[in-house]
Specification:
The chain contains 4 helices and 32 strands. It has 434 residues and is mainly beta. It folds into 4 domains: 53 residues, no CATH class; 86 residues, Immunoglobulin-like (Sandwich), CATH 2.60.40.3780; 106 residues, Immunoglobulin-like (Sandwich); 142 residues, L,D-transpeptidase catalytic domain-like, CATH 2.40.440.10. A 5-stranded mixed β-sheet has the order 26-25-24-32-27, covered by helices on one side. A hairpin with a 2-residue loop joins strand 18 and strand 19. The longest helix has 12 residues. The two termini are 47 Å apart.
Length: 434
């Protein structure tokens, strides 16, 4: 489309092409409503002046912005997140600043539902959120909301991340969180807790949380961790209302590394053999003895919880502290890997070498010869999976790190949030969102 304008100093008219992009669209809109438009410039097109150009900031935008929290909200939790909805437009800018003008860092949840500050907001502080959106003509609209956070509560409660930051684990290690043993998070608050638990993995892997009790929950990806994964965790619980008048003590962050080498162990009751694989290749087999009929070994997918070069097995508490009979003993043990809280291990058992590979005589542990036990001890790491098969007795729920002893569907039943999107293999952030 062209328009005719007077070229000053040349005494003739030349066609001048209207500006492209949004300036062209707004010019066309103004012409259609009868507004006069005049170009003044040189005939050679070296310069032109647009006389009567509209001030874009004075035009009404069709975009409508809604910001939450509502303006002048008082006593907002320091875990407050910003919600923004835009009708007839697209959000381009969102900022959050404190009363002294300091900009708050943060980012969107992967599903775009809320904008999350990178750390808890300060208590008794006023914040202002400002959003800018453009309508289909790229005319801007702006909205602001201010809110003030609550005073610091005196009744705050801590939580802990079981995993050690910067430590390297095997690829079956769950992420585990504990609240104090004498406290149970109310069920109507558990979804809020999950939303504030942020997990970001590289490479991205779909995962979820599972509450094993009111004070213990675990996170795992659908499959074992991809070898070499780096997992960043943030427990964003500082200032979060937890029910019963309690609030989270503080945020906790950590970075967990998953070994690039996969090491798995399988103990098969049918063959009385242990098989160790590394990156899918068999690297060792060894004869074993599992639990006898009166004290059977559990079958299931367990995880190496603890590694002990030396320890003492002491069961005398049930016998008044006395060593007597077959079940009350105090024995020095070498090269042990804990598999359950109830006390099943892989360990050196020189006394049962003659039975290993042929019959079961242990109190539930996986007995191996001393040299084999030392090799296994040096081979395994915390977080390596150990599968025991064919004993006829299932591993009890929660007896050890049992996250992978459940199917993915069973594991999801322990979450208080919707299941993650099966088509989204991105990072999970705060309860299956990312």
């Amino acid at each position: 489309m062209t328009s005719t304008a007077r070229a000053v100093g040349q005494g003739r008219c030349v066609p001048l092409l209207l500006m492209e992009s949004r300036f062209r669209r707004r010019t066309l809109m103004l012409v259609s409503t009868g507004t006069a438009v005049l170009f003044v410039g040189t005939a050679c097109g070296n310069s032109a002046t647009f006389v009567g150009a509209p001030d874009l900031e004075e035009l009404d935008s069709a975009a409508q912005i809604t910001l939450t929290p509502e303006n002048e909200t008082e006593d907002a939790p320091v875990t407050t997140e910003l919600e923004v909805s835009v009708e007839d437009g697209e959000l381009t800018t969102l900022t959050l600043t404190s009363a002294d003008g300091e900009t708050v860092e943060g980012d969107w949840r992967a599903d775009g539902s809320t904008w999350v500050p990178a750390e808890p907001l300060s208590y008794e502080t006023t914040y202002t959120a400002r959003a800018v959106a453009l309508d289909k003509h790229e005319i801007p609209a702006e909205s602001e909301t201010s809110f003030t956070t609550m005073a610091s509560p005196g009744n705050r409660m801590g939580a802990s991340l079981w995993n050690s930051s910067e430590y390297e684990y095997g690829n079956a290690m769950p992420i585990m969180i504990d609240f104090p043993r004498d406290y149970s998070v109310p069920e109507d608050k558990r979804d809020d807790v999950e939303r504030r638990l942020f997990v970001e993995s590289d490479p991205p892997q779909m995962g979820a949380w599972h509450w094993f009790s009111g004070n213990h929950l675990e996170y795992r990806p659908k499959e074992f961790w991809v070898p070499g994964s780096v997992v960043k965790v943030r427990l964003g619980l500082g200032g979060l209302p937890l029910g019963d008048g309690l609030y989270g003590m503080q945020d906790i962050s950590g970075t967990i590394h998953i070994s690039s080498t996969t090491r798995h162990i399988e103990a098969d009751n049918a063959t009385k053999q242990l098989t160790a694989t590394e990156n899918g290749e068999v690297v060792k087999t060894a004869p074993i003895s599992l639990g006898k009929d009166s004290t059977p070994s559990y079958s299931g997918t367990m995880i190496v919880m603890e590694r002990l070069a030396e320890t003492v097995f002491d069961t005398t508490a049930a016998c008044g502290g006395k060593v007597e009979g077959d079940d009350c003993y105090r024995t020095d043990i070498q090269w042990a890997e804990r598999l359950t809280w109830s006390g099943q291990f892989i360990h050196s058992a020189p006394w049962s070498v003659g039975d290993q590979g042929t019959r079961n005589v242990s109190h539930g542990c996986v007995n191996v010869a001393p040299d084999d036990a030392e090799w296994i001890y040096n081979f395994t790491r915390l977080g390596d999976p150990v599968v025991v098969k064919g004993t006829g007795v299932e591993l009890p729920y929660g007896d050890g790190f049992t996250a992978y002893d459940m199917s993915w569907e069973e594991f999801l039943e322990g979450s208080y949030l919707p299941a993650p999107d099966a088509e989204d293999d991105g990072d999970e952030e705060s309860g299956n969102d990312d």
